[in-house]
Structures are given as C-alpha cells and as structure tokens.
Specification:
The protein is mainly alpha-helical. About 50% of the residues lie in helices and about 5% in strands. The chain folds into 2 domains: about 60 residues, no CATH class; about 130 residues. The chain is built from 8 helices and 2 strands; from the N terminus they run H-E-E-H-H-H-H-H-H-H. A two-stranded antiparallel sheet has the order 1-2. Helix 5 packs antiparallel against helix 6 and helix 6 packs antiparallel against helix 8. The longest helix is centred in the last third of the chain and has 20 residues. The chain is elongated and about 75 Å long. The model has no long low-confidence stretch (mean pLDDT about 90).
C-alpha cells in the first residue's frame, strides 16, 4: 500500500503547535513521526515532529523503540520527563488503567495494582500529596454488604459483589485521564525530570 502523504493543513497545524521544532529535543527541521506507526493515520494527535536524530534514534531503532502508549502520553501532555528512563517504573505501574473494561468481573487484581501504584507514588517527591489525590481517584470503593446466614449460596450477596465490581471498574475508567494528569504533574517535582 503506497504511503499517503500528510495533508498540508494537518502538517502545518502540527508544526505550528511545536513551533517548528522537535517535540523531544527542540531541534530544527523535524520529520513527522506517526505514533501508531500507521502511515495512513494522519490525525494530528497521531503525529509528532521529531528531528532526524530523535526520529531515527528513538523511533526507528528496534533495540530502543519507545512504546506507542508512552508516546501517546507524551503527545498528550508534552512533558519530556515521560520519555526519560526514570519514568518507566511509573509507566509500567499505571498501565493497568488503560486496560480496565466495564463488567462485573472480580477486581482483586485491579485493587492490587492500584495499591502498588499508590505505594510507588508515595515514595517519590511530593508523594504524600499526589498519592492522596490519586487515591481519591483509583482506590476501591468502601461498601457494606449484606450476607445471608443460611449457609448456601447467597444470590443477594453475589448481586452486591457484581455491582460493586462494576462500580469500581467504572470509577477507574471515568478517572483514567485525571489519574494520568496527576502522575504527569508529579514528574515536575522529581529531581531527574529536568536533568539534561
């Protein structure tokens, strides 16, 4: 399939957004990189201007390629700290947020991952502040359940559990973007975030 050229208006909008500079290093004469690596997807949110060095070194080097979801975070928040190796442990721990889907399935694994992310965030600079606010977005819901003491299966309890599981999944989905924003905001307080 022949490569579809980027429409001039889209290219101009993208380059203007980044002041005609590389999104990563600020270098001039940027190439246009397709984040999802689909040359026909010329949506401006799928494009990044990268200087020749960043384009070849970071995106077309198979031994050092940046994950597409990480590049999407970078595209959205434009914070270079996202591309630093020190961000990777945060990135790995927050990935579960992007995989949450609606449904009544058990949430033990999601709760465990949310707690691990909060614990990790607490260990960083400004961790007490950010873990508190992030916890309000991703901590499990506190609910009381009514159980029958008949000894057999309890349909009412099962219904309550399904509803609680579904509500927690919906909470994570609804708060996904706000959670990402808090995690990215916390990066500016890390000593490595602005290091050259």
């Amino acid at each position: 399939m022949p490569r579809k050229s980027i429409p001039a208006k889209v290219k101009e909008t993208l380059l203007d957004e980044y002041n005609y500079r590389c999104a990563v290093c600020g270098g001039d004469r940027p190439h246009i990189h397709h984040i999802d690596e689909t040359p026909s997807n010329n949506d401006v949110e799928n494009l990044l201007p990268l200087c020749p060095n960043c384009h070849l070194r970071d995106q077309h080097n198979p031994t050092r390629k940046i994950d597409i979801p990480k590049l999407k975070l970078f595209r959205k928040y434009k914070d270079p700290a996202i591309l630093r190796p020190q961000f990777h442990p945060i990135y790995i721990r927050q990935m579960f947020l992007d995989d949450v889907h609606p449904g009544p399935e058990a949430v033990h694994d999601l709760v465990s991952k949310a707690e691990e992310l909060l614990e990790f965030i607490r260990a960083l600079e400004m961790g007490a502040f950010y873990s508190k606010h992030l916890g309000a977005l991703i901590s499990p819901l506190r609910r009381a359940f009514v159980m029958s003491l008949t000894g057999g299966p309890d349909p009412e309890y099962e219904r309550q559990m399904r509803e609680s599981n579904q509500a927690y999944r919906q909470l994570l989905i609804a708060n996904r973007d706000a959670s990402h924003a808090l995690l990215i905001e916390q990066l500016r307080y890390q000593p490595w975030a602005n290091a050259a």
